[in-house]
Amino acid sequence: MIRTNAFDYINVLDKAADAAWLRNEAIANNIANVDTPGYKRQDVAFESELRKALGNSSYKPMDEKVSEVRTSELEGKPYTDYSGYSYRLDGNNVDIENENVMLAENQLKYQGLLTSINQEFTNLQTVMK
């Protein structure tokens, strides 16, 4: 059996893309519930999980950090954002303008992740030729 780390970056990028997709769904749900009394906005925590998985050592090269990531433990985690906060009388804490900006930001991030995954596969194809 050949042991290789050729897919380490692809696996981490795949988890990041999954988390971005999950965040897109949460933001879309927030937008859909902008007028629902008592609704609290949802978001997905992934970047902090990735930062923790990569570690804080500035002495290790990124390739080594990525190869040590346990992708089975790297997941986007949905959470209720500012559950005790609301600037509206009906208890809802969704700001539609903020959600639209976050949706656009997340869509750009998702597209960038897909581009990176495609580039990694292109690199692998180039090496195999």
Describe this structure in words.
This protein has one domain. It is elongated. Helices cover 56% and strands 6% of the residues. The chain has a two-stranded antiparallel ribbon. It is mostly helical and 129 residues long.
- The CA-CA distance between the termini, in Å, is 21 Å
Give the low-pLDDT segments. Answer: none
- Count of distinct strands: 2
In percent, how much strand structure appears in the residues? 5-15%
Number of helices: 4
Mean pLDDT: 88
List the domain count as a whole number: 1
Tell me the Rg in angstroms. 18 Å
Strand order of the largest sheet: 1-2
Largest sheet: 2 strands, antiparallel
Q: Name the helix and strand elements from N-terminus to C-terminus, one letter apiece.
A: HEHHEH
- What's the overall geometry? elongated
Question: What class, by secondary structure content?
Answer: mainly alpha
The share of residues in helices is 55-70%
Task: List strands and helices in order, with pairings.
Elements: H1 8-32, E1 42-45, H2 47-54, H3 62-67, E2 77-80, H4 96-128
Antiparallel strand pairs: 1-2
Helix pairs in contact: 1-4
Task: Tell me briefly what this model is.
The protein has helices at 8-32, 47-54, 62-67, 96-128; strands spanning 42-45, 77-80.
